[in-house]
Amino acid sequence: MSIVYELIIGTKMWSSWSLRPWILMRQFALPFAETVIALRTPDTAAAIEAHSPSGKIPALRVGALTIWDTLAIVEYLAERHPGSPIWPRDDDARAIARAVSAEMHSGFQALRQNCPMDFNAHGLTPADPAAIAPDVARIFEIWRDCRSRYGAHGPFLFGAFSAADAMYAPVVSRFVTYNLVPAEVDEGGVISAYMAAIQALPPWAQWAHEAEQSA
Ligand SMILES: N[C@@H](CCC(=O)N[C@@H](CS)C(=O)NCC(=O)O)C(=O)O
User: Ligand 1 in contact with 56 (CB < 6 A)?
Assistant: First the structure.
């Protein structure tokens, strides 16, 4: 029997956490129904709580089971779909993919606070550019390191698209919206090439289109 998934997400223009499992499931062709909750309304909190015990989205419903929190959803999907290389196959690459994903999940508060995702917007200015500089530098370091050590067989962090790319997809959006990768800081064009690869994914265009429609 096929597994029936319902992914509960927030307004596509703004919900960076929602984009992560959504783009992962689309890219690995894992079918799901989606329920979109409008963020930033007086009813948002109650609507989310009806679906997610943490009061946060995304959440994945599988029959009577509800899984909340992005990394838990990713791990659940990786276990349920061993034929899909959601994590890299190589042991060392997989360990590092999990490390950079966990670092994303628990860190980069300054970038999040100062540069909220506004998916289709351009030319926005970070509230406090100095505060985000260490986060941006660390992300550049992660991307360069993954691309040079593990990226030989494709354009993504670990070559082929993996959960690590899904975890950083909203960062690509923020870097575009807030113009955080001027050419002079992008030695060798590694960062912009990686961002272009993410932006060329068909699900990226679908998310952009649907974000526009819901705005
Ligand atoms: N650690 C959580 C964070 C989820 C999160 O912060 N989600 C935001 C939306 S992007 C949310 O639900 N906010 C509640 C609200 O906007 O009322 C995860 O990894 O899923």
Answer: yes
Architecture of domain 91-203: Up-down Bundle (1.20)
Q: Is the pTM of this model over 0.85?
A: yes
Long-range contacts, stretch 86-95, CB < 8 angstroms, 24+ apart = 86/24, 86/28, 86/162, 86/163, 87/162, 87/163, 88/150, 88/158, 88/159, 88/160, 88/162, 90/150, 93/150, 93/158
Please work out whether the CB of residue 22 comes within 6 Å of at least one atom of ligand 1.
Answer: no
Residue 18 CA: nearest ligand 1 atom is 10
53, pLDDT greater than 80: yes
CA of 117 to the centre of ligand 1 (A): 12
For 5-84, the fitting CATH number among 3.40.30.10, 3.30.565.10, 3.20.20.150, 1.20.920.10 is 3.40.30.10
